[in-house]
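Notes, Module 5: Reading structure tokens.

Key idea: the token line is not a picture. It is a compressed description, and you learn to read it the same way you learned to read a sequence, by spotting repeated patterns. We will look at two proteins. The first is printed below with its tokens.
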Amino acid sequence: MSAGARTFSLDDTFIEPQVLEPPPTRHALFLILLVLAGLLLLGTAGWGDLRDGIEGQFAGGAREMLANQQWLTSTINGIPQLQTPPLLYWLIILSYKVFGVTVAAARLPVALASVLSVALTFLIGERLAGYWRGFAAGLIYLCSCDTFIYGRMLTPEPVFSMFFTAAIFCLVCGYQRRRFRRAWFAALGLCLGLACLTEGIVGLFYFAGIGVLLAVFLREARMRLPYLLHWSCLLIFILVVGPWYGWIFHWPWPAGFSRWQLVILNLLLWFPASILIGPGLLFASRKVLRSTDFSFANVLPLCWITVLLVPLIVSGAHSYQGLLGTSTAFALWAATLWD
């Protein structure tokens, strides 16, 4: 009688991180972060009138969609607004139905998305370097000027950033663990599809760029990320974005900004954590200069920042998609840099 032998793939040889029961401290830190985010973002959503321009466009467009029962195309005074996908309008309409047509109800989806972005930043940081680093990353993101200014402003960018960050979280979970990897990557397709249904199909190219850079720097990424091309992940993404983009094709063409203005603007939006850049790079010089020290926790935030920010600087274009997304990536990078 001969015993059967199992053939292991190269991916099976990598040891997965051990799952331990999280201590009470972790839960307390996460709860503190959520309470602070709720007080600062949800608690102030109704402060001040809606601003003319983009806030009026989305609040008024959602009100007209609700009145006209036209769910695919928003209008302002009867004029179709085709430059933005409809997901944010739908969320505002849902808020109107629950809380009434008020300023707080109009801003509630954006404020809630910002709170969820803080929570996701904590969870990603925890996955990369432990719950204390996750708490630091979430606190950095919550205290940034970017979150303070745009965290409850009625624009699609915070909602886009939240769904994009959720896609990154699914990527991290699927990357680190072979068990349920396809389920996590299928959830990634859903989150990425919702991001594209909020702000535009450009989110798909951002994510693809991050995946390519990870594959360049990490051998494990070249083995694990091809699971993203599984038919279930692609099908979920197509089912989410296909119907509306089949109705009307959209591509956002942002207004111009100079390259130096973009660099300065990001440093200001990352403040006060932006003061950590110099000392952080100094202490982490071995990680940056020696490729043998590269790890997933170090490379992911840098790839994230590079893909979203560098094309904007090179082209001189301006899009809050990139600016808000880099704030989350910078918070994770700043929190995980100080080993």
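Here is the second protein, with the sequence above and the tokens below, as before.
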Amino acid sequence: MLTGIVTINRHAELPPVRQIHEAIARAAQDGTLPPGTRLPTVRALADELGIAVITAAKAYRTLREADIVLTRGRAGTVIAPQDRVSSRLEEAARGYAALARDLGADDESVVAALRAALTASRA
């Protein structure tokens, strides 16, 4: 069901969990997956993408924590209503924070870089 929306690049720097998260988040943001769209079960997603079930479950968990999807027990996992501006900012901030951590940056450097970028964007 997510064919064409989610693909796993096994040679990418991003782990599969992050690739799934970003692809579904992007599709929710741009309307490719509108609110209420039912996603495959964890097992079906794992089979579709050729990944471990635990990887699919972790991806859904990160999407749930980011309020991109809702899990409704037996009713399954669906795309949540999106506040497009807020959701996009939060997603970008999470990506920036993850990159900063991967680079070993401390909090002060991360905030300083963001402030510099905001100042530059006003000019």
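Summary for the second protein:
- The beta strands are 69-71, 77-79.
- Residues 84-103 form the longest helix (20 residues).
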